[in-house]
Amino acid sequence: MNGAESLVKTLLANGVDTVFANPGTSEMHFVAALDAHPDMHCILCLFEGGTSAGADCYFRMKRDVAATLLHLAPGFGNAFANLHNARKGGSGLVNVVGEHATRHLAFESPLKGDIEAISHAVSHWTRRSPDAPSVARDGAEAIRAARSRGGQVATLILPADTAWNAADGPAMAEAPPPLQRPRPEEIEAAARRLAQPGAALMVGGEALFGAGFRRAARIAARTGATLVTDTLIPRTSKGADTPQHLQLPYAVAPKIAALDGTTSVTLVGSGRPVTFFAYPGKPSLPEPPGCPVMPLCRPEMDIAWTLDALEQATDAAGAQPAAVPMDLPGLPSGGALTLEKAGAAIAALLPENAILCNEAVSSGAALGPLLARARPHDMLGGTGGAIGWSLPGSVGAATACPDRKVVALTGDGSAMYTSQSLWTMAREGLDITVVVIANRGYQILRDELANVGVASYGANAQAMFDVENPVLDWVQLAQGHGVPGRRAADMDSFAAALRAGLDADGPALIELVL
Fold it and tell me: What is the end-to-end Cα distance of the chain in Å, rounded?
């Protein structure tokens, strides 16, 4: 057995059976080891940013770890943006990064780079295996690190000679250390604070979906506090019968207005609310002056235990929180296609228990209220602000939950970052319907230019905002990657294309032309 084989056996022995891969020469022994273990699900991504977004959203839905396989420092660098999103979203994953053989590092070969430096900027845990007998143990410790603190990015650097030299058998990962919990007096203080007029309970992590979200809603209902979620969140329950809450908007003025009158903010699983960027003459923190923001349970702490303790302290178990009523919009027909009509159609047709990967950045304000009226579903959102995650993220979500329909909403600018993911959807036969909102540009940049006070702009700025001349043809792009594509420029054609995509068992793409 060589080091690569010991690592594959270690991954499988510890329940890591999915690898999002983009390998190169230095990983060939690891590829051979993967090939010898057909129980490992290997998913080829044609760009490294697809591997990291896939593993990120796999964790968001399965709540367990997948691996990536990356090639040297440049490959890790290509994965960086979506690893940034994974870190911000609290996802656990194991990066296996091939490295030159130890003796080869003495020479300045073309692909040599400082992998540790790149890794330390985005990983919680980084290790370079020194020799083949260490590989299995290092792999087990990487898995333990990825499962620790609710989910972390762990990176194992695997020099080629440690993969090909003789090694021992697999290693078992120790259980992650217990999650830190608030002290009893902190729970009691939070319970009293939430009962005061104007209090807000701001939640994140596993308090955003499922039983955790419902428990948070009961606490808010019993105490009278406002249940709040942040703007960018990794996963949340949406649609009918899910808890009513306030999600902070993106823009500074509405975000400040949303918290106007708030007298305290108690954080459970969430970081402090902050504006997305700094703007001239505008504050970075949206809460009212003098409003205390109290971190009861940081995102890496025991969120489930904290909610349970807080529910007991507030006697909230029997509370009946307000839920989103079933209010499906009618399916629009006829006439011009608008964002509002498109949102109503998606909400009307979205099947129950779907997974919606939402990267409709500049279109979110129009779509959000309509999607909230859909049947119950999970929504995955941007976390770290790096765009180009939703197409490969939908690959990860569909891999984790093959029995659920996945819908990816994306702008045409964002989708071009990782359009290669369409090929992976086709190869894997994933049940994903992609809706590309083709507004022919980076609309968010036009909005941001206005936010910093620029009232008008000329040809240079226009050239950096538009994706025209030539116009992107998403139908041909989809078909070239093996995914059926349809263009919709009016309401009836969009409704027909959406029905067909949702009824299909495999991938489909709709170009929604505005």
Answer: 57
Can you give the pTM of this predicted structure? 0.95
- Name 453's Cβ contacts closer than 8 Å, sequence gap at least 6: 280
Q: What is the pLDDT of residues 154-179, one digit of tens each?
A: 999 999 999 999 999 999 999 999 99
Range 134-151 burial, b when 16+ CB lie within 10 A, else e:
bbbbbbbbbbbbbbbbbb
Give per-residue pLDDT as tens, 133-147: 999 999 999 999 999
Would you tell me the crossing angle of helices 48-62 and 72-89 to the nearest 10 degrees? 30
What are the C-alpha distances in Å from 193 to residues 236, 284, 320, 370?
25, 24, 20, 34
What stretch of H or E contains 220? helix 210-223
Helices (H), 227-338: 252-258, 303-314
Which tokens belong to 211? 């039983």
Total number of residues shown for the chain: 514
Conformational region of residue 141, where left means phi above 0, alpha means psi within -120 to 50, and beta covers everything else: alpha
Closest CA to 445 of 425, 428, 460, 424: 460
8 A C-beta contact, residue 171 and residue 10: yes
Read off the tokens for 201.
């309970």
- As given in the structure block, the two tokens for residue 415 are 């989708």
Using CA atoms, how far apart are residues 504 and 487, in angstroms rounded to an integer? 17
CA–CA gap between residue 91 and residue 56 (Å, rounded): 6
- Residue found under tokens 């003098």: 290
Q: Can you list the residues of the chain whose pLDDT is less than 70? A: 440-452, 455, 463-465
Q: Which amino acid is at 41?
A: H
Residue ranges of E strands in 100-175: 125-128, 153-159
The backbone region for 232, taken as left when phi is positive above 0, alpha when psi lies in -120 to 50, beta otherwise, is beta
Gyration radius of the chain over CA positions: 24
Q: Cβ–Cβ contacts within 10 Å for residue 462, how many? A: 12
